[in-house]
């Protein structure tokens, strides 16, 4: 089995609510290393990437802490490149979701990867659309080439992903301009409305089928994808999310049908948690994701399909995403 590389990023600069910088150590305290070893993996923990303390920094509303976030993500990028080159499977522990700008860039220097972005939010704002300037809400947009040049060109020039490499699962909290950008960029997105109507198994199989042309997957798991009743200790909780069983089944189907090459776990806020429950749940989900596969990747191609096979945002005018536009994470 591959060696797993644990990379912690104690960064909360990408959002305004304090506490997610404690996520990496909360996950370690919840037993992540031991659980992975029980699965048969060798685990190498690289510790935490040094992140500036926000109280020592100046910011502006348009792009909060941009130089510091860029610097930290550059370190993530370089370490990700190193780990991938050695054949290890990196698991990045956030921290807020802006770390994905570095992690996904870092694991794709020579070979493309599909990305399952599991999140209550789209993270597809730009400086022109963001109400707050918080960079965790711009991370996916930057990876596809939109937004601040410092983020778009981080690590290497230009976008790190194309639209056919990305599927969003669990979205239920977008602002209107962000929704329009997702439509214009033809991003495939499975909202909670569609998961409610069609079931997590069907949605997951279709999502994987859309990414089956790629050699491996990166799973970017924002714990706010789960319902706050299941995971209260998150940066931006939004009602109506994945249940405990839906989240586990999602991970189990991915494990059965896809080659996972890298993982993010982000937006855990121990300050808002109850006895580290959210971190413990995250460890359970990663254990489900990285367990030994039972079926080959080809199982995805034979998954039952319905029409249409997958969903662009505009395909579902009555869904939860379109009928409720929140003051969103941006």
TrEMBL record:
As to how many cofactors bind and how, the note says:
Binds 2 manganese ions per subunit.
Q: Which reaction does it catalyse?
A: L-arginine + H2O = urea + L-ornithine
MF terms (GO), sorted A to Z: arginase activity; manganese ion binding
This protein's pathway: Nitrogen metabolism; urea cycle; L-ornithine and urea from L-arginine: step 1/1
Top enzyme class: hydrolase
Does this UniProt record's set of keywords contain Manganese?
Answer: yes
Key word Hydrolase present in the record? yes
> Which keywords does the record carry?
Arginine metabolism, Hydrolase, Manganese, Metal-binding
Instruction: Give EC number(s), comma-separated.
Output: 3.5.3.1
Q: Which GO terms describe its biological process?
A: arginine metabolic process
One Gene Ontology cellular component term attached to this UniProt record is:
cytoplasm
Binding residue positions for Mn(2+) = 97, 119, 121, 123, 222, 224
List cofactor names only.
Answer: Mn(2+)
Classify the source by domain of life.
Answer: Bacteria
Family matches, as InterPro entries: Arginase, Ureohydrolase, Ureohydrolase_dom_sf
Give the record's family classification: Belongs to the arginase family.
Q: Per its UniProt record, what PANTHER family does this chain match?
A: ARGINASE
Q: What is this protein called?
A: Arginase
Q: What is the lineage of its organism?
A: Bacteria, Pseudomonadati, Pseudomonadota, Gammaproteobacteria, Candidatus Kentrum
């Amino acid at each position: 089995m591959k060696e797993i590389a644990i990379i912690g990023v104690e960064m909360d600069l990408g959002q305004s609510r304090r506490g997610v910088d404690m996520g990496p150590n909360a996950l370690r305290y919840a037993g992540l290393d031991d659980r992975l070893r029980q699965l048969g993996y060798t685990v190498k923990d690289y510790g935490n990437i040094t992140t500036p303390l926000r109280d020592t920094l100046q910011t502006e509303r348009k792009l909060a802490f941009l130089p510091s976030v860029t610097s930290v993500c550059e370190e993530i990028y370089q370490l990700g490149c190193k780990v991938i080159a050695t054949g290890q499977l990196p698991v990045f522990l956030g921290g807020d979701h802006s770390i994905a700008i570095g992690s996904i860039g870092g694991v794709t220097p020579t070979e493309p990867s599909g990305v399952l972005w599991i999140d209550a939010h789209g993270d597809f704002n730009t400086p022109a659309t963001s109400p707050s300037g918080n960079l965790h809400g711009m991370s996916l947009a930057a990876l596809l080439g939109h937004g601040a040049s410092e983020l778009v060109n981080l690590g290497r020039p230009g976008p790190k992903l194309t639209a056919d490499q990305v599927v969003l699962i669990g979205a239920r909290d977008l602002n209107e301009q962000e929704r329009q950008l997702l439509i214009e960029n033809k991003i495939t997105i499975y909202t909670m409305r569609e998961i409610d109507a069609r079931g997590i198994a069907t949605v997951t199989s279709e999502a994987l089928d859309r990414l089956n042309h790629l050699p491996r997957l990166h799973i970017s798991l924002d714990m706010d994808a789960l319902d706050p009743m299941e995971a209260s200790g998150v940066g931006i909780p939004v009602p109506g999310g994945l249940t405990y069983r839906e989240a586990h089944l999602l991970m189990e189907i991915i494990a059965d049908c896809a080659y996972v090459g890298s993982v993010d776990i982000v937006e855990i806020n121990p300050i808002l948690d109850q006895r580290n429950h959210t971190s413990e749940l995250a460890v359970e989900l990663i254990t489900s994701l990285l367990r030994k596969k039972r079926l080959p990747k080809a199982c995805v191609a034979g998954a039952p399909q319905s029409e249409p096979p997958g969903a662009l945002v505009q395909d579902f005018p009555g869904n939860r995403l379109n009928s409720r536009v929140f003051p969103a994470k941006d």
